[in-house]
Design a protein that fits this description.
The chain contains 12 helices and 12 strands. With 325 residues, the protein is of the alpha/beta class. It folds into 2 domains: 136 residues, 3-Layer(aba) Sandwich (Rossmann fold); 145 residues, 3-Layer(aba) Sandwich (Rossmann fold).
Length: 325
């Protein structure tokens, strides 16, 4: 009798337990639902540049919101370092890999390793359009269109006088190659139309950084004392160039057009130190890359690339920008 009573109590206990909401798989509080959907490994060109930090921060916050653990690391513009980071992601069996390649050609072998492991690879800002690799999708600024916008701004700023212009490049990044391509095409078309000639007299490596941008601008000023304009492929290079112009006493003689729209770059535009920037939206990139990862995981077909247009930002925009000082 005692044994029968114990069995009855055990059955009742099991019944109550099965009705307990926290243990119900369909409940929003279910441990199964609360568990991570997996992890996303992110290796960005550099986290020293605020632009890439914004991308990384938004992937991390959006990924967490959507149920993923996110690991964000800096490639530090070093292909070997970035390759090791991706190998580490493969060993960890992440659900997806996101990268902005330090060098689109040199990174191919390790992307192929991720492909072979069945891990989808996404690129953000800097594409990898090399043969032999499978990229789920590329999310980026329309860098080519932004380069064209930068050229139009330079033409406007130089006016009827035209003049000599230098380009501060970062050649190892395909995104910067597209910016310079768009810039050159518009300048060439302007010159072919018989307008006041703009002569691109130098194309120097800036590393996309302030210190190298400063040195590149200093070198081009020595070679071209009558320089009238500088197109810098991002805000750090543009700000470095501005510092070199100020040191040389030529800040009021030479127009700078940058690219990015980082807070420091926008502030410089508001103060008249940089003429204009085609601005990017790194926050949107971070959110959209997570959205693409989720769509791909559900078997949805993604387009080869998703481009986010730039928007030209000038002094008048800076004066209305409440986020600035």
């Amino acid at each position: 009798m005692k044994q029968s009573l114990l069995v009855t109590l055990a059955c009742l206990l099991a019944l109550f337990t099965s009705c307990d909401k926290p243990g119900n798989p369909s409940s929003p509080q279910s441990p199964a639902n609360a568990a991570s959907k997996g992890s996303i490994g992110v290796s960005l060109l550099t986290l020293d540049n605020p632009f890439f930090k914004v991308i990384g921060d938004n992937i991390a916050s959006e990924g967490k919101k959507r149920g993923y653990d996110v690991i964000v690391v800096s490639g530090d513009k070093d292909v070997a370092r970035q390759s090791n980071q991706i190998k580490d992601f493969i060993v960890k069996k992440v659900s997806a890999i996101v990268l902005s390649p330090c060098d689109s050609k040199s990174i191919v072998p390790v992307i192929q390793e991720a492909n072979a492991a069945g891990i989808p690879v996404f690129t953000v800002d800097i594409p990898c359009n090399e043969p032999g690799v499978k990229i789920a999708t590329q999310i980026a600024t329309d860098n080519y269109g932004g380069g064209k916008e930068a050229a139009q701004a330079m033409i406007e700023a130089l006016g009827e006088a035209g003049g000599k212009v230098a380009v501060l490049h970062f050649k190892q990044a395909e995104s910067c190659q597209l910016r310079v391509k768009g810039f050159r095409e518009v300048i060439d078309a302007h010159n072919a139309a018989g307008e006041a000639k703009i002569d691109i007299v130098a194309e120097l490596e800036s590393g996309g950084a302030k210190d190298q941008g400063y040195k590149a601008a200093e070198d081009t000023l020595q070679a071209n004392p009558d320089l009238r304009g500088i197109f810098a492929i991002n805000d750090p290079a543009a700000l470095g160039a501005r510092a070199a112009l100020e040191k040389a006493g030529k800040a009021d003689q030479i127009i700078i057009v940058g690219f990015d729209g980082q807070p420091e770059g926008k502030q410089a535009i508001k103060e008249g130190k940089i003429y204009a920037d085609p601005i990017q939206f790194p926050d949107k990139m971070g959110v959209q890359i997570v959205d693409a990862i989720i769509k791909q995981s559900k078997g949805e077909t993604l387009p080869p690339q998703i481009l986010i247009p730039t928007s030209l930002y000038k002094k008048a925009d800076g004066e209305k920008d409440e986020s600035l000082k």
